[in-house]
Amino acid sequence: MPCPLSETVISTLSPTISAFGKEGTTDPFLSYFGRTTHLNNQFLRLYFLLAGVSMKLLEEERARAFAVEITDKTILDHPFKDEYMISDYYKDWFLTQYLTFSIDKATQDDPSLKEKKYYRLEKISEAFQGKMKEYMLFRQLDAVLSVNVRTVEQLDEYKPVFEHYIAELTNNGSRSRKR
Protein backbone atom coordinates (compact mmCIF):
# COMPACT_ATOMS: atom_id res chain seq x y z
CA MET A 1 0.00 0.00 0.00
CA PRO A 2 1.58 3.34 -1.04
CA CYS A 3 2.23 5.89 1.66
CA PRO A 4 -0.19 8.83 1.30
CA LEU A 5 2.37 11.22 2.77
CA SER A 6 4.97 10.34 0.13
CA GLU A 7 2.38 10.88 -2.63
CA THR A 8 1.56 14.28 -1.14
CA VAL A 9 5.24 15.24 -0.94
CA ILE A 10 5.87 14.12 -4.52
CA SER A 11 2.84 15.97 -5.88
CA THR A 12 3.84 19.10 -3.95
CA LEU A 13 7.47 19.03 -5.10
CA SER A 14 6.76 17.92 -8.64
CA PRO A 15 6.25 21.43 -10.11
CA THR A 16 9.45 22.63 -8.41
CA ILE A 17 11.51 19.65 -9.53
CA SER A 18 10.29 19.92 -13.10
CA ALA A 19 11.06 23.67 -13.08
CA PHE A 20 14.85 23.13 -12.71
CA GLY A 21 16.52 24.42 -15.82
CA LYS A 22 13.37 25.92 -17.32
CA GLU A 23 12.89 29.55 -18.22
CA GLY A 24 10.04 31.66 -16.93
CA THR A 25 9.97 30.61 -13.29
CA THR A 26 9.23 33.32 -10.76
CA ASP A 27 11.57 31.93 -8.13
CA PRO A 28 14.87 33.86 -8.34
CA PHE A 29 16.73 31.20 -6.35
CA LEU A 30 15.56 28.12 -8.21
CA SER A 31 18.55 27.87 -10.57
CA TYR A 32 20.98 28.32 -7.66
CA PHE A 33 19.14 25.63 -5.70
CA GLY A 34 19.16 23.37 -8.74
CA ARG A 35 22.91 23.89 -9.30
CA THR A 36 23.69 23.30 -5.63
CA THR A 37 21.59 20.14 -5.56
CA HIS A 38 23.27 18.85 -8.72
CA LEU A 39 26.74 19.50 -7.30
CA ASN A 40 25.84 17.96 -3.93
CA ASN A 41 24.66 14.80 -5.67
CA GLN A 42 27.74 14.57 -7.88
CA PHE A 43 30.25 15.15 -5.10
CA LEU A 44 28.53 12.83 -2.65
CA ARG A 45 28.94 10.04 -5.21
CA LEU A 46 32.62 10.86 -5.65
CA TYR A 47 33.11 11.06 -1.89
CA PHE A 48 31.75 7.54 -1.40
CA LEU A 49 33.99 6.20 -4.16
CA LEU A 50 37.09 7.85 -2.68
CA ALA A 51 36.14 6.66 0.80
CA GLY A 52 35.72 3.12 -0.54
CA VAL A 53 39.21 3.24 -2.03
CA SER A 54 40.72 4.78 1.13
CA MET A 55 39.11 2.08 3.30
CA LYS A 56 40.33 -0.57 0.84
CA LEU A 57 36.78 -1.69 0.09
CA LEU A 58 37.11 -0.80 -3.58
CA GLU A 59 40.00 -0.90 -6.04
CA GLU A 60 41.02 2.48 -7.41
CA GLU A 61 40.60 1.42 -11.05
CA ARG A 62 37.12 0.07 -10.39
CA ALA A 63 36.12 3.24 -8.53
CA ARG A 64 37.41 5.36 -11.41
CA ALA A 65 35.44 3.31 -13.96
CA PHE A 66 32.30 3.57 -11.87
CA ALA A 67 32.80 7.33 -11.47
CA VAL A 68 32.90 7.69 -15.27
CA GLU A 69 29.54 5.93 -15.48
CA ILE A 70 27.73 7.91 -12.77
CA THR A 71 29.33 11.36 -12.68
CA ASP A 72 28.99 14.47 -14.80
CA LYS A 73 31.94 14.39 -17.24
CA THR A 74 32.60 18.11 -16.78
CA ILE A 75 33.09 17.59 -13.05
CA LEU A 76 35.29 14.52 -13.55
CA ASP A 77 37.48 16.38 -16.05
CA HIS A 78 37.82 19.42 -13.74
CA PRO A 79 37.02 18.45 -10.14
CA PHE A 80 38.73 21.46 -8.57
CA LYS A 81 36.91 24.68 -9.35
CA ASP A 82 36.07 27.53 -7.00
CA GLU A 83 32.52 27.57 -8.40
CA TYR A 84 31.90 24.20 -6.72
CA MET A 85 32.35 25.80 -3.30
CA ILE A 86 28.60 26.46 -3.17
CA SER A 87 28.19 22.75 -2.42
CA ASP A 88 28.61 21.77 1.22
CA TYR A 89 29.19 18.18 0.13
CA TYR A 90 32.07 19.38 -2.03
CA LYS A 91 33.68 21.40 0.75
CA ASP A 92 33.08 19.17 3.72
CA TRP A 93 33.05 15.68 2.26
CA PHE A 94 34.73 15.48 -1.13
CA LEU A 95 37.70 17.81 -0.51
CA THR A 96 38.42 16.25 2.87
CA GLN A 97 38.22 12.73 1.46
CA TYR A 98 40.37 13.71 -1.52
CA LEU A 99 42.99 15.02 0.90
CA THR A 100 42.91 11.74 2.84
CA PHE A 101 43.14 9.77 -0.40
CA SER A 102 46.13 11.87 -1.58
CA ILE A 103 47.93 11.50 1.74
CA ASP A 104 47.32 7.75 1.75
CA LYS A 105 48.83 7.43 -1.75
CA ALA A 106 51.82 9.59 -0.85
CA THR A 107 52.55 7.68 2.36
CA GLN A 108 52.35 4.37 0.48
CA ASP A 109 55.12 5.65 -1.78
CA ASP A 110 57.10 7.23 1.08
CA PRO A 111 56.24 5.87 4.55
CA SER A 112 58.49 8.46 6.21
CA LEU A 113 55.81 11.09 5.46
CA LYS A 114 53.74 9.59 8.30
CA GLU A 115 56.32 10.98 10.71
CA LYS A 116 55.98 14.57 9.44
CA LYS A 117 53.92 16.42 12.06
CA TYR A 118 52.51 19.01 9.66
CA TYR A 119 52.23 16.90 6.52
CA ARG A 120 48.46 17.51 6.17
CA LEU A 121 49.11 21.25 6.02
CA GLU A 122 51.92 20.77 3.51
CA LYS A 123 49.70 18.57 1.36
CA ILE A 124 46.83 21.08 1.42
CA SER A 125 49.21 23.87 0.49
CA GLU A 126 50.59 21.97 -2.50
CA ALA A 127 47.47 20.12 -3.70
CA PHE A 128 44.79 22.81 -3.58
CA GLN A 129 44.40 26.29 -5.05
CA GLY A 130 42.09 29.28 -4.68
CA LYS A 131 39.10 29.14 -2.36
CA MET A 132 39.52 25.39 -1.87
CA LYS A 133 43.03 25.86 -0.52
CA GLU A 134 41.95 28.63 1.83
CA TYR A 135 38.98 26.66 3.08
CA MET A 136 40.98 23.51 3.71
CA LEU A 137 43.92 25.36 5.29
CA PHE A 138 41.62 27.26 7.62
CA ARG A 139 39.81 24.10 8.68
CA GLN A 140 43.06 22.22 9.30
CA LEU A 141 44.65 25.08 11.25
CA ASP A 142 41.48 25.42 13.30
CA ALA A 143 41.34 21.67 13.97
CA VAL A 144 44.98 21.47 15.08
CA LEU A 145 44.65 24.46 17.37
CA SER A 146 41.30 23.36 18.79
CA VAL A 147 42.63 19.93 19.72
CA ASN A 148 46.24 20.64 20.68
CA VAL A 149 46.35 24.10 22.23
CA ARG A 150 45.21 24.77 25.79
CA THR A 151 47.80 27.35 26.93
CA VAL A 152 49.61 30.38 25.55
CA GLU A 153 52.86 28.41 25.74
CA GLN A 154 51.42 25.70 23.52
CA LEU A 155 50.19 28.34 21.08
CA ASP A 156 53.70 29.79 20.94
CA GLU A 157 55.00 26.37 19.83
CA TYR A 158 52.71 26.40 16.79
CA LYS A 159 53.18 30.04 15.87
CA PRO A 160 56.39 29.73 13.77
CA VAL A 161 54.98 26.87 11.71
CA PHE A 162 51.50 28.31 11.28
CA GLU A 163 52.62 31.83 10.27
CA HIS A 164 53.47 30.57 6.79
CA TYR A 165 50.06 28.96 6.32
CA ILE A 166 48.14 31.84 7.89
CA ALA A 167 49.81 34.15 5.35
CA GLU A 168 48.18 32.03 2.61
CA LEU A 169 44.71 32.89 3.97
CA THR A 170 43.55 35.98 2.14
CA ASN A 171 39.82 35.44 1.71
CA ASN A 172 38.07 36.78 4.80
CA GLY A 173 34.94 34.85 3.78
CA SER A 174 36.71 31.55 4.53
CA ARG A 175 37.17 32.54 8.16
CA SER A 176 33.59 31.93 9.19
CA ARG A 177 32.96 28.52 10.67
CA LYS A 178 30.05 26.41 11.74
CA ARG A 179 29.76 25.48 15.38
Strand content: under 5%
Order of helices and strands: HHHHHHHH
Shape: flat
Major sheet summary line = none
Residue ranges: pLDDT <50 for 5 or more in a row?
Answer: 174-179
Strand tally, please?
0
Total individual domains = 1
Number of helices: 8
Radius of gyration: 20 Å
Class per helix and strand makeup: mainly alpha
Note the gap between the termini.
42 Å
Q: Roughly what percent helix?
A: 55-70%
Mean pLDDT across all amino acids: 85
Explain the layout of strands and helices.
Layout: H1 4-19, H2 30-54, H3 60-70, H4 73-77, H5 88-109, H6 119-127, H7 130-148, H8 152-167
Helix pairs in contact: 2-3, 2-5, 6-7, 7-8
Structure description:
This protein has eight helices and no strands. It has 179 residues and is an all-alpha fold. It has one domain (29-173). Residues 174-179 have low confidence and may be disordered.
Give a quick rundown of the structure.
It contains eight helices and no strands. It has helices spanning 4-19, 30-54, 60-70, 73-77, 88-109, 119-127, 130-148, 152-167.
Keywords:
179 residues; mainly alpha; disordered C terminus
